[in-house]
Amino acid sequence: MDKDLNPLDFMRSLQSVLLTHYQSSGITYLHSLFDSHPEIISIPGTPNLDHLMDQEYYTLQEALDLFNKANPKFFDTSKFSLLDMNSAGLYRLGENANEGFQLSKEKFEGYYKECLKDQLQVSVSDAILSLYYAYSRTRGEKLVDKKVVLLHPHDHLRAIKMSSFLPNVKCFITHREISAAYYSRLNLTKNKNILRSIFGSHVGLLSDPAKHVLPLVKRGIEFRIVRIEDFEKHSKYCLTQLCDFVGISYQSSLESSTFFGKKWNGANPKFRHTKFTNERLALPKITKRENNIFYLISKKFNTITGH
């Protein structure tokens, strides 16, 4: 970061990259690989930024209050559990999968205010970018090396909404064999609904992959699709291509799946892997009728993307 460049101008100058996916296809895993890249500013997991994009506010304190209210466990991820909507496995860090991470709220809020101190009225993009500045400064990272701010809206609807606020947006999109992705999401959703004692439905789980990247194509958003199965044997090639796409260098840190510098064990408590193994890639047994449905969805996806 240039000494003469104020924090907000610096954050605006970075390449914004959004992480999104369709069904369970390893997007948080991809995030964990990029999280410790020295040229990237990123906040682990999927912080809830919906209120910053949906509600009206004018001052930095109003924006900060909205963020804190929507993310009550942000400063201590050990308080997360599978019951939480945005846990991303951040309570299962470390070698024994029993650690979280603590961040100083006082420092974070101080840096957030530093970034927005000259703004009489806070825009959505500035409110969001300042969160990432505050996180990076609180972590003691070297801003002089940063080229990209990596955000994780997770699903494509949030990614599209966020892209309308942020300048210079590109996307990473993970993709997975459609039937495996569908049943992975279905089973995890069932488990969460049981714990939360709420009714769940599979309705809509096929609509997102049926559309897939079409909404992004229509909006002219630049993106790269990552077939997560390719990571088992070709991870370095895939990651090198993604780095080239957003203008950063391949780093050895990309070989480790971590958040906060701690080993990430996945978001699904039934598994404890830092890589996509054959066990995770195994396809479910499906009927002929189901296979025909998944084939039609895959065909549409291939038509849209040229795969």
Give a quick rundown of the structure:
The protein has 307 residues and is α/β, with parallel strands linked by helices.
Polypeptide structure, described:
This protein has 307 residues and is an alpha/beta fold. The protein has one domain. The chain is 43% helix and 11% strand. It has 13 helices and seven strands. The longest helix is centred in the middle third of the chain and has 19 residues. The chain is globular, with a radius of gyration of 19 Å.
Record keyword descriptors for this entry.
two-stranded antiparallel ribbon, globular, alpha/beta
Helix count from the secondary structure assignment:
13
Q: Averaging pLDDT over every residue, what do you get? A: 84
Helix content: 40-55%
Largest sheet geometry: 5 strands, parallel
**How are strands sequenced across the largest beta sheet?**
2-3-1-4-5
Spatial gap, N to C terminus: 39 Å
- Strand % is 5-15%
Low-confidence stretches: none
Q: Based on CA inertia axes, which overall geometry fits?
A: globular
Order of helices and strands: HEHEHHHHEHEHHHEHEEHH
Indicate the topology.
Blueprint: H1 7-13, E1 15-21, H2 27-34, E2 40-42, H3 50-54, H4 60-70, H5 105-116, H6 124-138, E3 148-155, H7 156-163, E4 169-175, H8 178-196, H9 207-211, H10 214-218, E5 222-227, H11 231-246, E6 258-259, E7 262-263, H12 278-281, H13 288-305
Parallel strand pairs: 1-3, 1-4, 2-3, 4-5
Antiparallel strand pairs: 6-7
Helix pairs in contact: 1-6, 5-6
